[in-house]
């Protein structure tokens, strides 16, 4: 990142959830190291994708940034202001600029409130009275997200999953945020509806200049949506780079394995990428492996990996801003970036 | 096992499954026909509410008999399943045909050990002793790749990870070496790296035992990996079928084009917006007239006389290939070429 003044600046962000147990008095017997020392920045108007498997800490990261969780360590700076441990009062103005879109459109909307009430909620809480009134603003917002403004008085159950997610987007837009944390915003939706919502978010990013922290497990959707992408594994960022570098030249073995496991809708006899089959499951974050956390599933792991945690640095052969945390990064041979000639769409 | 060469192992003919509800009749499946041979995998693709899961519950006889009106034929190895008694079905289920569900945690009993749950099916169908069933359970766990199977056999489901639970479910489904395995979104809840492991496992087991598999999914990528033949369902009907190559390389139905256009790929263009299908899936309580896809179809107006909204297109199948659409073959070729041209630059 060459940007000297990022919108969001995260350093050493850590969240450990205490595990209580013991008898007769409960005490802390361990900690789930959900997020362990994250460093990243988000520039204004940029979309940073956060990918990883379940349990890697990507959702926790989103909740830390929005301060729905209290960080254990590290710092979060929003426009230079340290909000790591800011109290409610200090947070109020920041919260109106950082909004969140949730995964489950069925659970994240109050079933007893009308759409109008849901979308105007953030304005009410922050005491904002837009010119022309809140109702007019809600209608505008509904129109922006592609819903009928006349549906103002309807309840969430009258809408389909995709439409509900649009209501969630409208609510997030109500305060004209600068940064939206979107936690798996499309994974609960049908394929044809996913594309509608992704296109909507992309328009918002482009037209309104909103920055996104886009959390998802689907590598293809993240690639489509985010200019920069960070890959997480067991609470740590293992690789971060801009989209072209990360997908064209993945350096971390985990990134490679993750990409090779994505099934693609092509009927080619020869697979486009070499397939790396990882063995076993992600270890428990309660007791993560020493050194490099990926070493227990890595085919290249040595003694060094067990004793020394690899730092997140630019390894030789990578472009600027492409950071990898690995002692033995993959070589620079490029994964075929474009395979259009053989893609199903092109062959008729 | 008396399956002859002419007769496919599983044959579904004009299957209709209608539920009566307080609001009216839900036509969950409305005239579905397909065949499946031994050792082959049929992929069924469709969105929520397309009738893909109902079809397979009906094959297994797991539907609610009181409230369901069923018409058509389901022949498994020449035996009619729809008229079979519950007792006969019980003998077949878990033995000759079995199922893997999407949510492994919800499908396993939390109060019984993994080993007991796997052994239960085996004992029921073979009359084996508890000891034999336990040995069989350990063997099955080993076969699906659970480490230390002789120890893990006494674990409870909550002690297993998501991927291991799905493996245990597969072990349970395969304990009697079934000839038909129905897998309903078996990998949807799993991470991609675990999904890859499970799909490899299913492919290996199929090669070893010649099982016929019906694989239900909404992910065309998964289909590309595992299926031989593909059936695309929409609103309770089959809109397109063919081999995997035919359907993925030269799809014939606008809905299939829409599905492909909705999916970003790992190496496609990034600066072009996705081409989603407008609108949402139809209500099966009150499905659209004519072609059920016509309200969302970009090409409906290209067909003269408004036939798309008045006349149901028939699925014309030659050599297992067909699509239910009023567009002519020439139109389809041209429109599909245009449709993809906008996506690729």
Output the CATH topology of the largest domain in chain A.
Answer: Rossmann fold
Number of helices of chain B: 13
Q: Which stretches of chain A of 5+ consecutive residues score pLDDT under 50?
A: 334-348
Task: Write down the Rg of chain B.
Answer: 21 Å
Distance between the termini of chain B: 54 Å
Order of helices and strands of chain A: EEEHEEHEHHHEHEHEEHHHE
Helicity range of chain A:
25-40%
Mean pLDDT metric of chain A: 87
Shape of chain A: globular
Tell me, briefly, the overall form of chain B: globular
Say what oligomer this is. heterodimer
Kindly state the number of beta strands of chain B. Answer: 11
Q: What's the pLDDT, averaged over the residues of chain B?
A: 88
Radius of gyration of chain A: 21 Å
CATH architecture of the largest domain in chain A: 3-Layer(aba) Sandwich
E-strand count of chain A: 11
In spatial order, strands of the major sheet of chain A run 6-7-8-3-9-10-11
Structural class of chain A: alpha/beta
How much of the polypeptide of chain A forms β-strand, as a percent range?
15-25%
For the largest interface, the chains and their residue counts are:
A-B, 55 and 56 residues
- Biggest sheet statistics of chain B: 7 strands, mixed
GO molecular function, one term (chain A): ATP hydrolysis activity
Family (chain A): Belongs to the ABC transporter superfamily.
Protein name (chain A): Dipeptide/oligopeptide/nickel ABC transporter ATP-binding protein
InterPro entries (chain A): AAA+_ATPase, ABC_transp_ATP-bind, ABC_transporter-like_ATP-bd, ABC_transporter-like_CS, Oligopep_ABC_C, P-loop_NTPase
Keywords:
heterodimer; A: 348 residues; Rossmann fold; 4-stranded antiparallel sheet; 27% helix; B: 345 residues; alpha/beta; 7-stranded mixed sheet; 11 strands; 36% helix
Verbal overview:
Chain A: Residues 8-259 form the ABC transporter domain. Chain A: Belongs to the ABC transporter superfamily. Chain A: This is Dipeptide/oligopeptide/nickel ABC transporter ATP-binding protein. Chain A: InterPro entries: AAA+_ATPase, ABC_transp_ATP-bind, ABC_transporter-like_ATP-bd, ABC_transporter-like_CS, Oligopep_ABC_C, P-loop_NTPase. Chain A: GO terms for molecular function: ATP binding; ATP hydrolysis activity. The complex is a heterodimer of chains A (348) and B (345). Chain A has helices at residues 58-65, 88-95, 115-125, 134-144, 161-173, 191-208, 219-225, 243-248, 253-260, 303-307, and strands at 8-21, 27-42, 47-51, 73-78, 81-82, 98-101, 179-183, 211-216, 228-233, 236-242, 323-324. Chain A has 348 residues and is of the alpha/beta class. Chain A has 2 domains: 8-226, Rossmann fold; 252-263 and 275-331, no CATH class. In chain A, strands 6-7-8-3-9-10-11 form a 7-stranded mixed beta sheet, with helices on both faces. In chain A, strands 2-1-4-5 form a 4-stranded antiparallel beta sheet. In chain A, helix 3 (115-125) crosses helix 4, helix 3 packs parallel to helix 5 and helix 5 packs parallel to helix 6 (191-208). The longest helix of chain A has 18 residues, at 191-208. Chain A is globular. Mean pLDDT of chain A is 87; it is low at 334-348. Chain B has a 7-stranded mixed beta sheet, sandwiched between helices. Chain B has a 4-stranded antiparallel beta sheet with strand order 2-1-4-5, with helices on one face. Chain B has 345 residues and is α/β, with parallel strands linked by helices. In chain B, a hairpin with a 2-residue loop joins strand 4 (68-76) and strand 5 (79-80). Chain B has helices at 52-59, 86-92, 104-107, 114-126, 130-143, 149-152, 162-174, 192-209, 220-226, 244-249, 254-262, 307-310, 329-344, and strands at 10-21, 24-36, 41-45, 68-76, 79-80, 97-100, 180-184, 212-217, 229-234, 237-243, 322-323. Chain B is globular. In chain B, 36% of the residues lie in helices and 21% in strands. The longest helix of chain B is centred in the middle third of the chain and has 18 residues, at 192-209.
């Amino acid at each position: 990142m060459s940007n000297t003044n990022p919108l969001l600046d995260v350093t050493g962000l850590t969240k450990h959830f205490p595990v209580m147990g013991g008898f007769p008095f409960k005490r802390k017997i361990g900690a789930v190291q959900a997020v362990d020392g994250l460093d990243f920045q988000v520039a204004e108007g940029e979309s940073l994708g956060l990918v990883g498997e379940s349990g890697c800490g990507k959702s926790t990261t989103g909740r830390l940034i929005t301060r729905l969780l209290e960080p254990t360590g590290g710092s979060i700076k929003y426009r230079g202001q340290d909000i790591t441990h800011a109290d409610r009062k200090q947070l109020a103005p920041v919260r109106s600029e950082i909004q969140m879109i949730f995964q489950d459109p069925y659970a994240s909307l109050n079933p007893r409130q009308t759409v109008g009430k849901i979308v105007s909620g953030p304005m009410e809480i922050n005491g904002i009275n837009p010119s022309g009134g809140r109702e007019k603003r809600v209608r505008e917002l509904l129109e922006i997200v592609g819903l009928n403004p006349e549906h103002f008085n309807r309840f969430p159950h009258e809408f389909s999953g995709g439409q509900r997610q649009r209501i969630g987007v409208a609510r997030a837009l109500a305060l004209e945020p600068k940064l939206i944390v979107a936690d798996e915003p499309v994974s609960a939706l049908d394929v044809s509806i996913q594309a509608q919502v992704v296109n909507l978010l992309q328009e918002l990013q482009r037209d309104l200049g909103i920055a996104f922290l886009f959390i998802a497990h689907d590598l293809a959707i993240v690639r489509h949506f985010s200019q920069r992408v960070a890959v997480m594994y067991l609470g740590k960022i293992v690789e971060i780079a801009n989209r072209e570098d990360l997908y064209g030249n993945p350096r971390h073995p985990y990134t490679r394995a993750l990409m090779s496991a994505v099934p693609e809708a092509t009927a080619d006899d020869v697979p486009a990428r070499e397939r790396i089959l990882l063995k076993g499951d992600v270890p428990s974050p309660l007791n993560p492996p020493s050194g490099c956390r990926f070493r227990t599933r890595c085919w290249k792991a040595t003694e060094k990996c067990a004793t020394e945690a690899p730092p997140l640095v630019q390894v030789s052969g990578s472009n600027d801003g492409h950071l990898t945390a690995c002692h033995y990064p993959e070589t620079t041979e490029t994964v075929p970036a474009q395979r259009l000639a053989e893609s199903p769409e092109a062959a008729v | 096992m008396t399956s002859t060469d002419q007769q496919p192992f599983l044959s579904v003919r004009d299957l209709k499954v209608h539920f009566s509800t307080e609001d009216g009749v839900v036509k969950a499946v409305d005239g579905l026909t397909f065949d499946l041979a031994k050792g082959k995998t049929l992929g069924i693709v469709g969105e929520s509410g397309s009738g893909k899961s109902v079809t397979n519950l009906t094959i297994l006889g797991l539907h609610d008999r009181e409230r369901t009106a069923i018409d058509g034929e389901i022949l498994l190895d020449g035996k009619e399943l729809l008229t079979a008694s519950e007792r006969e079905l019980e003998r077949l289920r878990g033995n000759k045909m079995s199922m893997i569900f999407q949510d492994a945690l919800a499908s396993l009993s939390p109060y019984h050990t993994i080993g007991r749950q796997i052994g239960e099916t085996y004992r029921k169908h073979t009359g084996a002793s508890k000891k034999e069933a336990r040995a069989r359970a350990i063997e099955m766990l080993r076969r699906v790749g659970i480490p230390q199977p002789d120890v893990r056999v006494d674990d409870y489901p909550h002690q297993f990870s998501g991927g291991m639970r799905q493996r245990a479910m597969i072990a349970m489904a395969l304990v009697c070496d079934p000839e038909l395995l129905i897998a309903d979104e078996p990998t949807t809840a799993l991470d991609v790296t675990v999904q890859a492991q499970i799909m490899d496992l299913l492919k290996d087991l199929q090669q070893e035992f010649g099982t016929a598999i019906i694989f239900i999914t909404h992910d065309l990528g998964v289909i590309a990996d595992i299926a031989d033949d593909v059936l695309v369902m929409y609103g309770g009907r089959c809109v397109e079928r063919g081999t995997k190559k035919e359907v993925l390389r030269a799809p014939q139905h606008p809905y299939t084009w829409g599905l492909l256009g909705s999916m970003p790929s790992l190496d496609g263009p990034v600066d072009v917006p996705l081409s989603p299908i407008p609108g949402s899936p139809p209500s099966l309580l009150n499905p659209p007239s004519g072609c059920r896809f016509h309200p969302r179809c970009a090409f409906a107006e290209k067909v003269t006389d408004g036939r798309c909204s008045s006349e149901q297109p028939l699925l014309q199948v030659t050599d297992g290939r067909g699509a239910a659409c009023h567009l002519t073959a020439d139109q389809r070729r041209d429109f599909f070429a245009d449709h993809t041209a906008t996506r690729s630059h």
